[in-house]
Amino acid sequence: MVSYRQLRELGFSKGHVYRAHEADRLRRIHRGVYAVGHAGLSAHGRCRAALLAFNDNAVLSHRSAGWLWRLFPVCREEVDVTFAGKGRRKGIRIHRVLAISDRDTATLERIPVTSLSRTLFDIAATEPKRELERAVDRARRRNLLDLDAIDQMLGRRGRVPGAAQLKQALALYRKPVFDRARSELLFIDAIEKEGEHLPVLNCWVGKWEVDAYWEAERFAVEVDGWETHGSREAFENDRLRQEEMKLAGIDSIRISARRLETEPERVAKRIRTFLTRRRAELRRTAS
Question: Residues 38-45: contacts with CB within 8 Å, 24+ apart?
Fold first, then answer.
């Protein structure tokens, strides 16, 4: 990818550029932006071309920046660019600002891009809630989620579209838990809303390490994801483990991470029912 300005700086005359374009050695992508010797652009190429169309006054942003940060699997055809200035380009979604702070920008894979914090903020302002939640969780799983940096950025932005949505999406990750896996965060959030007292997380009960444990009720909950419990060996071991815990006087259930994602309130209500029955059972045994 190369811009007309760059070609001129390299010593090409207007005539050289014109003839190279006529001979298809330069393929026009945007006004003043060319692909050298080809027309088939990768997603990275489309992003570079979009930025070259605005010289040095633009950064990749919003959904496109989310793709570059690997928060989304696909880069949309229409590239998102945040631009401090005037102008428009076909095939580019322009987000105009008065200025772009250095604190809100980064360079990723040699492409100027909004910082991760600013990218999540922009996604919050323009994408559906579900897409924002997925982006935040992917940032967490890639060890990119810096809550302090996001709080500082939100403090600079004030009460503008996207701020409230992002704060709400991040609330889940501020819970005081030991393992910050999303499924466990969803679990704790749902239990709190149901009004049940919280269990101990990620603890050892005898020889077993369990995800959540109510000590007084001797009741355990395991949160499973298919990626870690999808083999035949894991299937057999999970059932044997549950039998051994039952023999040791510990009642337990297994719930899937997918159910926590899709119906956390229902899961919490059922756990509360199990706990109520377990308490009644222990009282009968004690008497």
Answer: 43/67, 43/74, 43/75, 44/109, 44/111, 45/1
Give the model confidence (pLDDT) of 140-166 as tens digits: 888 899 999 999 999 888 788 889 999
CA 187 – CA 255 distance, rounded (Å) = 10
Helix (H, G, I), strand (E, B) or coil at 36: strand
The 3-state secondary structure of 164-188 reads HHHHHHHHHHHCCCCCCCHHHHHHH
* Rounded distance between C-alpha atoms, residue 98 and residue 84, angstroms: 5
For residue 205, give the nearest of 257, 240, 248, 253 by alpha carbon.
248
Written as one letter, the residue type at 279 is R
Do 64 and 76 meet the contact criterion of CB atoms below 8 Å apart? yes
Spatial strand order in the sheet of 200-205: 200-205, 208-214, 219-224, 251-256
Could you read off the pLDDT of 173-197 as tens digits, one per residue?
Answer: 876 544 456 777 788 889 999 999 9
Q: pTM score, two decimals?
A: 0.63
